[in-house]
Design goal:
This protein is about 60% helix and about 5% strand. The chain is mostly helical. It folds into 4 domains: about 150 residues, Tetratricopeptide repeat domain (Serine Threonine Protein Phosphatase 5, Tetratricopeptide repeat), CATH 1.25.40.10; about 140 residues, no CATH class; about 160 residues, no CATH class; about 140 residues. It has a 4-stranded mixed beta sheet, with helices on both faces. α17 links the parallel β2 and β3. The protein is globular and about 90 Å long.
Length: about 625
C-alpha cells in the first residue's frame, strides 16, 4: 500500500514548486480494509476470490478518481496475474500501473521502484525478459536515490533481476545477483526469502550442470531455513513451503517435497476451518462477496520468484473404482482367462468404461451407497461372441461370486447392471445409439455430448485385437472440423444470450427466478464450450464442474462458474464474472484461429465461427443448433 511519504517526497523549502500538484479525490476507497481482505484470501489460497476482490475495488477506485488506491491495487494485481498465469490481464495491469506512476506524480520514488519491480517481474514471467530488465534498471535507480545500500528491499530486486538474467542465458550475472540478494537477507524475519533465493541458486546451477555439488549445498541451506526455530509459522511460511516443495522434488529431494507440502496443507486446512468457524458466527465478517458492505460500514507484498508447483496428495487410503477394477482384473480376472479361456485372449479387450462416476474417476466414499460394485467389462466382436461369449460369461459369473463383499452396494430403481461380457458393437449401441463411431456429420452433431463422454471414459486394461480402442480413438479425434465449428458457434451464441444478455435483463424485470435459470444455462453451456475447446466431451451435468477441473485449457473457470451458482453472490459481481469468463473464452477462440473478432460479446464470435464452416448444409442450420 502506498503511504503519504511515498508520493510526497521531501523537498527543499527554497526549491521551485513541483510541476504537478495532486489533490485528494473527494472520496477514497477504504484501502487498508481492502488490502487486509487481500491478505486473508491470499493466506487461504483462494486465487479466484482474490482476483474478483481486487478487480472489484480497482473499478471502485477508478470510478471515484482515487488514483493512488487504484495504483496500489494494480500493484497487487500484477503479482496476482503473474501467480495465476493470466498473461493478457497481467500485461494490461503492468501497462496501466506504469502509466499511473506518472499521473500520480511519484516518478523516481521508492514506491515507484517497487511498482516497477513488480511489473518487471510480471513481464519476465510472461516472456518479455528484455523489457523486464529495462524496468529492473529503472527500479534500481529509484531505490538508489533514496535507500541505503544495505536496505533489504534490494534483495527482492536482485533476486528477480537474477532470474531475468538466467532466462536470458546470462548465468554469471544471475549468480552474482543471487549472491547479492543472499548477502542482504540476514535477519530472522527473512528466512523464507533466503530459502527461496537458495532454491533459485540451486536451480541456476542445475541448469548449467546437474552434477554440480553446489546444488545439494544450496538445498540443504534452503531446507534449514524451514527447520529453523526462528522461522515464523504463518501464511507466508505456508506459501513458501508450497512454492519450494516442487523445486525440491524436481531436484531429486522427494522426501523434502512431501514434507513441505504436508506443512502447507496443514496450515491451509487450519485456516479454512478457522474461516468457516468465524463465518458461522458472523456470516458477513469474512465473506469476500459481502466485503463492500462490511468495509463501507466501517503494501507491497513481496512475492519471490516462483520455484515450483505444488502437487496434489490424497493420503486418505481411498481407492477409486477404476483402480479397484484394474486391481481385480489383474489379480483374478486375467489369470482366470489365461487358465480357462486362453484361446479367447487374443480376441478380447477388458477395462472399465460407460455409466457411473467410477468410470470417470469421480467417485468417492459417498458414491458407494448405490449401484456400485467392483467390476470390469470384457469386450469382444460380434464375430467372436459366437465362439467365446458363453464361456466368458460363465467365467465372469464365477468371478463375480468372489468379488470383494465389502465393496458391494444396494441397487437403485434406475441403476443399470455393469461389468461382464459384451460385444463391442452393443457397448457403443447402448451409449451412442449406433454400433461404432459416427460415420456422418449428422451423427456427430446430434448425439449428446454426455453419450460420447461415456463411450470414451474410463480405462482399457487390455486390448489385444485393438478394435475397441480404435473406435474410442476415432470418437475422441474424428469429429469433423465443420461440426466442431458449429457446436462452438451454438455455445458462443447461447453463452451470449443467457449470460451476457438475459441474466441482466431478467434482473431488470425483477424476475430473479428467471435470472437464476439464465445463469444455470450459461454455466452448463460454458462447461460444454470448454470441453470442446479441449477436444473432450462434457459429461452428465452433475459431474460437469469436476470434469472441468481436469482440463488444461480454461479448466480454472470451474471455480468462477461455481461461484455464479452461489445463493448469496451479489448480482453486480456475478455480472462481472460472466464478462470475465466470456472475455477469456473469446481470447482462446482467437488464439485457435476460430475468430478474428476483438469483441467480448460472444455473439460476434458465434457469427465468425459460422462463417468459417465450409459444409453448406451445416452452415445453413440455425446458429443455436448443435
Amino acid at each position: 500500500m502506498l503511504e503519504k511519504d511515498d508520493y510526497q517526497e521531501p523537498v527543499c523549502p527554497l526549491s521551485p514548486p513541483p510541476k504537478r500538484v495532486w489533490h485528494d479525490p473527494p472520496e477514497r476507497i477504504p484501502l487498508d480494509r481492502v488490502i487486509a481482505e487481500c491478505d486473508r484470501l491470499f493466506g487461504e489460497e483462494q486465487p479466484f476470490l482474490l482476483g474478483e476482490h481486487l478487480r472489484h475495488w480497482r473499478r471502485k477506485a477508478a470510478e471515484l478518481g482515487d488514483k493512488r488506491s487504484e495504483l496500489s491495487l494494480l500493484n497487487e494485481l500484477m503479482g496476482h496475474y503473474r501467480m495465476t498465469g493470466d498473461r493478457e490481464r497481467g500485461l494490461e495491469a503492468v501497462r496501466d500501473g506504469f502509466r499511473l506512476i506518472g499521473e500520480v506524480g511519484i516518478e523516481g520514488s521508492v514506491s515507484a521502484g517497487t511498482i516497477l519491480l513488480n511489473g518487471a517481474t510480471a513481464l519476465k514471467s510472461f516472456g518479455k525478459v528484455k523489457e523486464a530488465l529495462q524496468h529492473y534498471a529503472e527500479a534500481f535507480r529509484c531505490y538508489g536515490a533514496h535507500l541505503a545500500p544495505e536496505d533489504p528491499r534490494y534483495a527482492g530486486l536482485f533476486n528477480n533481476m537474477a532470474a531475468a538474467y538466467a532466462d536470458n542465458g546470462e548465468f554469471r550475472h544471475a549468480e552474482a545477483y543471487y549472491r547479492k540478494a543472499l548477502a542482504l537477507l540476514k535477519e530472522k524475519s527473512q528466512l523464507m526469502d533466503r530459502a527461496v533465493t537458495e532454491i533459485n541458486l540451486a536451480q541456476l546451477y542445475h541448469r548449467q550442470d546437474p552434477s554440480d555439488p553446489r546444488i545439494a549445498e544450496c538445498l540443504d541451506r534452503a531446507y534449514g531455513c524451514f527447520e529453523s526455530p526462528d522461522a515464523e509459522y504463518g501464511s507466508y511460511y505456508a506459501h513458501t513451503c508450497r512454492k519450494c516443495a516442487g523445486a525440491f522434488g524436481d531436484l531429486g529431494e522427494k522426501d523434502r517435497e512431501r514434507e513441505l507440502n504436508k506443512r502447507a496443507d496443514a496450515f491451509y486446512d487450519a485456516a479454512a476451518q478457522k474461516s468457516a468457524s468465524e463465518a458461522r458466527k458472523d456470516p458477513e465478517k469474512n465473506d469476500v462477496r459481502k466485503v463492500e458492505s462490511a468495509v463501507r460500514s466501517g503494501s507491497d507484498r513481496k512475492i519471490p520468484e516462483d520455484t515450483g508447483r505444488p502437487g496434489p496428495s490424497s493420503g486418505r487410503g481411498f481407492m477409486r473404482g477404476i483402480d479397484l477394477a484394474k486391481e481385480w482384473f489383474e489379480s483374478a480376472g486375467l489369470p482366470a482367462i489365461r487358465e480357462k479361456c486362453p484361446d479367447a485372449l487374443p480376441f478380447l479387450a477388458a477395462g472399465l468404461a460407460g455409466s457411473g462416476s467410477e468410470c470417470f474417476g469421480f467417485d468417492d466414499e459417498i458414491s458407494r451407497d448405490h449401484d456400485f460394485e467392483v467390476r470390469f467389462s470384457i469386450w469382444i466382436s460380434e464375430e467372436q461372441e459366437a465362439r467365446f461369449g458363453f464361456r466368458l460369461e460363465r467365467l465372469y459369473a464365477e468371478l463375480r461370486k468372489q468379488a470383494p463383499a465389502s465393496e458391494k452396494s444396494g441397487k437403485s430403481a434406475w441403476g443399470q447392471p455393469g461389468g461382464g461380457v459384451e460385444t463391442i458393437e452393443s457397448f457403443f449401441q447402448r451409449h451412442l445409439g449406433i454400433p461404432g463411431a459416427p460415420r456422418h456429420w449428422e451423427q456427430w452433431l446430434r448425439i449428446p455430448e454426455y453419450a460420447f463422454a461415456e463411450a470414451v471414459n474410463g480405462a482399457v486394461f487390455l486390448d489385444n485385437p485393438g478394435a475397441f480402442t480404435a473406435v474410442r480413438q476415432t470418437i475422441l479425434t474424428g469429429m469433423p472440423r465443420d461440426v466442431l465449428l458449429k457446436k462452438l458457434a451454438a455455445r458462443a451464441a447461447l453463452m451470449a444470450q443467457s449470460g451476457q444478455y438475459n441474466f441482466a435483463r431478467c434482473l431488470k424485470h425483477g424476475e430473479r427466478g428467471a435470472a437464476h435459470l439464465a445463469l444455470a444455462e450459461f454455466v452448463r453451456t460454458t462447461g460444454s464450450m470448454i470441453h470442446l475447446l479441449n477436444g473432450a466431451f462434457a459429461p452428465y451435468y452433475k459431474w460437469l464442474l469436476k470434469s472441468l477441473r481436469t482440463l488444461p485449457v480454461l479448466g480454472d473457470m470451474a471455480d468462477p462458474l461455481e461461484f455464479l451458482l452461489a445463493d448469496d453472490a451479489p448480482d453486480d459481481l456475478r455480472l462481472s464474472v460472466v464478462e470475465d469468463i466470456c472475455r477469456r473464452t473469446a481470447s482462446v477462440l482467437r488464439d485457435r484461429g476460430f475468430s478474428d473478432s476483438q469483441e467480448t460479446f460472444l455473439e460476434a464470435h458465434a457469427m465468425e465461427l459460422m462463417r468459417r464452416i465450409e459444409n453448406r448444409e451445416i452452415r445453413s442450420l440455425h446458429i443455436m443448433e448443435g
